Amino acid sequence: MCFVLVPRQDERTFLPSRFVYVEHSPRKEEEAQCQDNLGESQPGTSKRSPLTRMSFKLFRRGSARCIGLLSAFVTILLCLYYISIGQPNPAPISETGAPSAALRGSPLNAINGFSVGAGSSAISHQQKIHTAIVSNQKRSSEAKVAQTTGSPESQSEEEYTNSKWGDKCYELLQSNTNITASEEHSKFDFQPEWMRSKEYWDRGFEERFDAQKKDKQRPPLKIIVVPHSHNDPGWLKTFTNYFQSDSRQILNLLVTKMQEYTDMTFIWSEISFLQLWWDQAHPTKQRALKRLIDSGRIEITTGGWVMTDEANVHIYPMLDQLIEGHQWLKNNLNVTPKVGWSIDPFGHGSTVPYLLSGANFEGTIIQRIHYAWKQWFARQQSGDFIWKPYWRGRNGKDSETGSLLTHNMPFDIYSIKGSCGPHPFICLNFDFRKIPGEYTEYSVKAQFITDDNLEAKAQLLLEQYARTASLFPHNVALIPVGDDFRYNKDREVDQQYQNYKKLIDYIMANRRLYNADIRFGTPSDYFEAIKERMKDRSPGFPSFKGDFFVYSDIFSEGRPAYWSGYFTTRPFYKLLSSELEHQLRSAEIVFTLAYNTARQAKRENAIKIYEKNYELIINARRNLGLFQHHDAITGTSKAAVMRDYAMRLFESTQNMVKMQESCLELLLQKGQPRHHGFLLSEFERDNFNKLPRKMPIQMANGDDSTATVSAGEGGAGGSVSVGSIGSFVLYNSLAQKRVEIVTLRVQHPNVKILNDKGVELSHIQINPVWNITDTYEQGLGTSVSGTVGRIRTSTRQFEVMFVAELEPLSLSTYRVQVDEVNFKRNIATIYCDDCTETAPAGVSPPDEAEVSPSPVFGARAKPAGDIQLENPHMRLLFDEKSGFLKTITRKNQKKELLKPLQCNIKFAAYRSAQFHSGAYLFKTDPEQSEAEKEVLEGYTDMRIIITSGPIASDVTVIYGPFLAHTVRIFNTRTHLDAAIYVENDIDFEPPPKNRETELFMRLVTNIDNIAQVPLQRDPLKEPADAATMPELPVFYSDQNGFQYHERIKVPAIGIEGNYFPITSGAFIQDTRLRLTLLTTHAQGAASYEPGQLEVMLDRRTLYDDYRGMGEGVVDSRLTRHKFWLLVEDLPGGQHVTQPPSYKVLSQQAQQLANALRYPPNLYFVSSLEQPELSAALLPLVRLLPKGALPCDVHLTNLRTLSDPELQLFPSASALLVLHRQGFDCSVSASRELSMEAICPLSSKGLGNVQLGRLSLHTIEATSLTGTEQKPSKDSFHIRSLAEISLEPMELRTFNLTFRSEV
Question: Which keywords does UniProt give here (predicted)?
Answer without folding.
Answer: Glycosidase, Hydrolase, Membrane, Metal-binding, Transmembrane, Transmembrane helix, Zinc
